[in-house]
Write a structure and sequence with these properties.
Blueprint (H helix, E strand, L loop, with lengths): L1 H24 L10 H23 L7 H13 L12 H5 L4 H14 L10 H11 L1
Helix pairs in contact: 2-3, 2-5, 3-5, 5-6
Length: about 140
C-alpha cells in the first residue's frame, strides 16, 4: 500500500514538473508574421486612406487617423510590402520607435482590413480600433 501511494506521488510530481518545464520553454517573443494576402490588402487600404487624409488636410480638414495610418504604412515599408526610396520615406518612419505596442497595433490593423470590403467605408472601424490601440 505504501509503495502504491509513493508511486502516485512520484508520478504526480513528475507530471507537474514536466508541465512547469514545458511552460518555461515557450517562446517569449510575440509572433508578428502575417501572410502576403493580409499585408497586400492592408497596403491597398492604407495607401488609399493616406492619400485621402492628405487631400483632406490640404482642404483644411485634418484627419484624426493620420498617426494610425502612418504606423501601418511604416510597418508595411519595414516588411517590404510597400517599396519607397529613402528620400521619400516619411521622417516619422525613420524616427519611429519599434516596440511591442506599435507592432501589435499594426498587426491587428492589417488583420482587420482583411475582414472588410476595400471598396466601401467598412474598414473605417479598423482605423478607429488601431487608433485606440496606439493611444
Amino acid at each position: 500500500m505504501k509503495l502504491l501511494v509513493s508511486f502516485k506521488l512520484l508520478s504526480i510530481t513528475l507530471i507537474l514538473s514536466g508541465l512547469l518545464v514545458g511552460c518555461s520553454i515557450s517562446p517569449t517573443q510575440p509572433n508578428y508574421d502575417l501572410d502576403s494576402h493580409i499585408l497586400t490588402r492592408s497596403a491597398v487600404f492604407t495607401q488609399r486612406e493616406l492619400i485621402n487624409s492628405l487631400l483632406n488636410q490640404a482642404a483644411g480638414k485634418p484627419s484624426p487617423y493620420g498617426a494610425t495610418l502612418l504606423n501601418s504604412y511604416c510597418d508595411l515599408v519595414k516588411r517590404n510590402i510597400i517599396f519607397t526610396s529613402p528620400e521619400n520615406l516619411p521622417k516619422q518612419c525613420m524616427d519611429r520607435v519599434l516596440n511591442h505596442q506599435n507592432l501589435s497595433c499594426a498587426v491587428k490593423f492589417h488583420e482587420c482590413t482583411t475582414m472588410c470590403s476595400l471598396r466601401t467605408d467598412s474598414c473605417q472601424s479598423c482605423t478607429t480600433r488601431a487608433k485606440k490601440c496606439l493611444d
